[in-house]
Design a protein that fits this description.
It comes from Bradyrhizobium valentinum. Keywords: Isomerase. The chain is built from 6 helices and 13 strands. With 232 residues, it is an alpha/beta fold. It is globular. Bound molecules: ribulose-5-phosphate (5RP). The site of ribulose-5-phosphate (5RP) has 18 residues, from helix 2 and helix 4.
């Protein structure tokens, strides 16, 4: 089974948690894309749900699938968000933002009663940090923000190269919110909650890709089958 089939399997298992009438956060990325597609089939079959997309890409896909959409201004809370991740650890802390949608993803996850992470099992790690940590920043004062980030990394016992993300066209990647992303190659983030707190204090940092205590369940698809992990 190839990676894409594994992602679809994880998405299909997460779909079993969706009930008629739910308000759903719709994630971003190649795994979440399967979930949106499968949800679209349910909606076509008569299921009544409403979704909040976490990116313009997901909005376009959900609209094409005819999934009714709303906004976080129009509703109070979401019942469930289903989203992918770049890495997840045994505490179900995550690195997200490889697709550049981390800001809306975190806003939506934080407004949800539950978040289910769907992934192939290569994303599972003992310690976060092998995947470069995406940090969404304001373009103004980039160098100052990066210096403050380096201090936060040192205070958290990590270090590594930082790179401004570029798009496929070679230009600086711009997020849906009009910001830039700095990818930090840290290797092993031994105290992710501590680093998350420090990064959140930096004025030029809009949001970072450490999702601490937000995921309640992970559905991991691998060659041996599906593994479901619940946060303790
Ligand atoms: O955080 C994300 C986008 O900002 C994605 O969820 C993450 O990058 C995983 O993507 P994929 O399912 O394509 O591996």
């Amino acid at each position: 089974m190839d990676m894409d089939q594994l992602k679809r399997q994880a998405a299909a298992r997460a779909l079993e948690h969706v009930r008629d009438g739910m308000k759903l956060g719709l994630g971003t990325g190649s795994t979440a894309k399967h979930f949106v597609e499968l949800l679209g089939e349910k909606v076509a079959g008569g299921m009544k749900v409403v979704g909040v997309p976490t990116s313009e890409a997901t909005r376009a896909q959900a609209e094409a699938c005819r999934i009714p959409l709303t906004t976080l201004d129009a509703i109070d809370r979401l019942d469930l968000t289903v989203d992918g991740a770049d890495e997840l650890d045994p505490a179900l802390n995550l690195i997200k933002g490889g697709g550049g949608a981390l800001l809306r993803e975190k806003i939506v996850a934080a407004a949800s009663d539950r978040m289910i992470v769907i992934a192939d099992d290569t994303k599972w790690v003992d310690v976060l940090g092998r995947f470069p940590l995406p940090v969404e920043v304001i373009p103004f004062g980039l160098a100052a923000t990066q210096r403050a980030m380096a201090t936060a990394f040192a205070q958290s016992g990590v270090s590594g190269q930082m790179g401004l993300r570029k798009g496929r066209d070679g230009h600086v990647f711009v997020t849906d919110g009009g910001h830039w992303i700095v990818d930090a190659h840290l290797g092993r983030i031994t105290d992710a909650p501590h680093l998350a707190g420090l990064l959140s204090l930096i004025p030029g940092v809009v949001e970072h890709g450490l999702f601490i205590g937000l995921a309640s369940i992970a559905v991991l698809a691998g060659a041996q089958g599906i593994r479901v992990v619940e946060r303790r």
